[in-house]
Fold this protein.
Amino acid sequence: MSLDGFIAGLNDGPGNPLGDGGERLHHWLFSGTTPSSHNEFFKPAEASREVVDEWFDDLGAIVIGRRTFDIVDGWDGTHPLGVPVFVLTHEAPETVPEGATTFTFVTDGIERALEQARKTAGGNNVQVGAANVAQQYLEARLVDEIQVHLVPVLLGSGVRLFESLGAAPIELERTRVIESTGVTHLRFDVVKKQGTTKNENQ
Ligand SMILES: NC(=O)c1ccc[n+]([C@@H]2O[C@H](COP(=O)([O-])OP(=O)(O)OC[C@H]3O[C@@H](n4cnc5c(N)ncnc54)[C@H](OP(=O)(O)O)[C@@H]3O)[C@@H](O)[C@H]2O)c1
């Protein structure tokens, strides 16, 4: 995310997936000298390696929105993080690019998508995004943790990660800061209402 809160610039679409200037947000993923031991597609800045490693070690499934899926043409059938992907949509596509990833199109809401993703993930994490979908899960208080990879650039306009979250504040507790080259990795727990633990809310 850019310092001013955008995860894509203006004019995002097929051929320009992160919008005008948005590629800058992913430079840290490819600016290192050594490829990730999990997937040589990524070559993260040195201090970012543990963040990328966690994706492969701890991630069990991804829930994303149909816009992201369409904009990247379904990652040509193979998502780089190598886990099953659940796509929230109002209407499943007729064809899906063939590759290594299992895509499931969910048309009956965010709770159902999360339920399926959690079952598939076993005990591992479920990652939700992009902006529109993440906002829905936040509003529904179904998010345990937020990770932001904050890039020192002001994009000025585009797709905001935290656009419409309703009026009630969502309290966060910062749990990690990693300063890396061209990015600061921030991690927060979402503070749940008193008397409940993280697990009771999952
Ligand atoms: N910076 C990064 O690392 C990063 C990462 C990922 C994505 N992105 C960018 O983020 C942008 C896309 O994000 P976005 O927020 O615009 O869209 P999105 O969350 O990817 O997708 C939104 C779409 O998903 C479907 N959808 C969402 N909730 C639904 C529900 N409850 N039930 C049924 N369908 C539902 C709808 O599509 P339909 O009505 O068409 O079905 C909706 O228009 C792109 O620019 C992408 O490149 C950036």
Q: What stands out?
A: The pocket of NAP is lined by residues 7-8, 12, 17-19, 25, 64-68, 71, 88-91, 109-110, 129-133, 136, 159 (CB under 6 Å). The longest helix spans residues 110-121. The chain has a mean pLDDT of 94.
